[in-house]
Design a protein that fits this description.
elongated, two-stranded antiparallel sheet, about 10% strand, three-stranded antiparallel sheet, about 150 residues
Length: about 150
């Protein structure tokens, strides 16, 4: 069984994904600034994420997400944006409150709940990353009542 990423590690992946378009690198300084942490803390997190196969980097060079990191970061980012949109459009929360709550909830919310929010907003359901199996799981209702999976390489 794989050990689940901490919320902090998920936030690092999301920050890297948002700072650098796919295939491009990002500087450690930019990640630290984005998350309001020291460069030493960010560097330590990069080492942990590299060991888990989410990114690649060499000291003093740009940091790149691996395919696994991109899949996971996309999933977390999609969850955040879905929750944020649901809170602001359906629940009419102000942006600041909705964004802060989405940031906290994105780490613990199930794919079923995300997809229920997306259905409520008439949006296509999404693939969710299952860290236990390292597969992307499509919601059964959008896969002809048969869940499908794709290896996150």
């Amino acid at each position: 069984m794989k050990k689940k990423l901490t919320f902090t590690m998920e936030n690092y992946l999301e920050a890297i994904y948002e700072l650098a378009p796919e295939g491009q690198g990002v500087r450690l300084t930019d990640i630290a600034d984005r998350l309001g942490v020291s460069k030493a803390s960010a560097n330590s997190a990069m080492g942990s994420l590299m060991e888990k196969g989410f990114l690649s980097f060499e000291p003093y060079k740009e940091i790149y997400l691996t395919q696994r990191g991109i899949h996971f970061a996309k999933d977390t980012t999609k969850k955040h944006h879905t929750i944020l949109e649901f809170f602001t459009s359906a629940l009419k929360l102000d942006y600041e409150t909705a964004n802060a709550d989405a940031c906290a909830i994105e780490h613990v919310i199930s794919c079923d709940t995300i997809n229920a929010m997306r259905r409520y907003m008439n949006k296509e359901e999404c693939w969710c990353h299952d860290e236990e199996t390292d597969f992307l799981i499509k919601h059964p209702e959008t896969a002809g009542n048969t869940a499908t999976a794709e290896k996150a390489e």
